[in-house]
Design goal:
Layout (H helix, E strand, L loop, with lengths): L3 E5 L5 H11 L7 E8 L2 H5 L15 H13 L4 E8 L2 H11 L4 E6 L4 H7 L2 H8 L3 E6 L2
Helix pairs in contact: 4-6
Length: about 140
Amino acid sequence: MLKNILVALDASEIADRVIETLHELVLAKDSKVILCHVFPPPESEMELSADRPHPDSPALSSLQVEKQLQFYQTQLPVESEIELVSGDPAEEIIRLANIYKADLIVIGSRGLTGVNRIVQGSVSSQVVEEAPCSVLVVKVK
């Protein structure tokens, strides 16, 4: 049974698709959903290398992200919490999964392939490899 579900959301269009997929799951009344967002640490902005791609859109403020997660929270039929953390996305998602003893992690994937996947890395791939539980990866259609 899925008692604790960690839902990792970023500030992209994938977040809506992840929430749609979550609604398709049959959750027990006593299930708990933890909606999380990981902000890059402030010092990482100082260490951006010139040879690596950077996000096209500016990072959303924590207030904007929190409001979006609160909106998603109102749509959930079960108890939920919000976690806003800072750090390496994959490491923080795995850390939260361990803290909450998650039975499932739901995460989006941009479907990067080839050189883009090598250069930018894949948070979802790292989470799948290192997670203490099952991982549902939602791909953009």
